[in-house]
Design brief:
By secondary structure, the protein is mainly alpha-helical. Helix content is 57%, strand content 0%.
């Protein structure tokens, strides 16, 4: 007695007297609200807290390293990233096996950025050449140009890094051979 039985169709509300202007302000505030991101949800798991701290530190490190490439808007345009969206993406994807080491996460993101930059030719085509590509190229920051890196694993990145280094060495060898030929002629 004195307790309501649980019924998911019932909803308890409070009614306040408000002017039209006050109601309009409240309505606007409610519509501006954004859902709480998974990374910001409370947890009692201490390992989870360590992962959050590592992701926060890694995202902040990247934001400080490339301040002009981050936007306050969660719906930012390419090539920008939003730090909160980045944090949530890193947390949900459990990068580096859910690592608690922020430096490891930063190193992984640097490899992803380098991989995207090495493949930047696809964004430089006449159809896609834009201010976004120019800005990404100027800042050496490609993570905001594509979301494909969200699913890359640490092992894939290490293997891809070996390929990128091999390509660079091959280019250097070709340049040296060309220079030698020019000198002989």
């Amino acid at each position: 007695e004195g307790r309501l039985a649980f019924d998911p169709t019932n909803c308890v509300t409070e009614v306040y007297d408000a002017t039209e202007e006050e109601a309009s302000k409240i309505f606007s505030e409610i519509n501006k609200a954004e859902p709480v991101q998974l990374i910001d949800m409370p947890s009692s798991d201490s390992r989870d807290e360590l992962r959050r701290d590592a992701v926060d530190a890694a995202a902040e490190h990247l934001r400080c390293a490339y301040p002009s490439m981050f936007s306050a808007s969660s719906r930012c345009l390419r090539p920008h990233l939003n730090v909160d969206t980045l944090r949530n993406t890193l947390y949900k994807s459990e990068v580096c096996g859910g690592s608690e080491d922020w430096k490891r996460i930063v190193a992984w993101m640097a490899r992803c950025n380098e991989r995207l930059g090495a493949d930047a030719q696809r964004w430089k085509s006449a159809r896609k050449k834009s201010k976004a590509v120019e800005k990404a190229e100027k800042n050496g920051f490609w993570l905001g140009m594509s979301e494909e890196w969200h699913g890359w694993t640490e092992e894939e990145e290490e293997a891809e890094e070996v390929k990128v280094v091999a390509k660079r060495k091959a280019r250097v060898r070709k340049t040296k051979v060309k220079d030698v030929k020019d000198v002989k002629e």
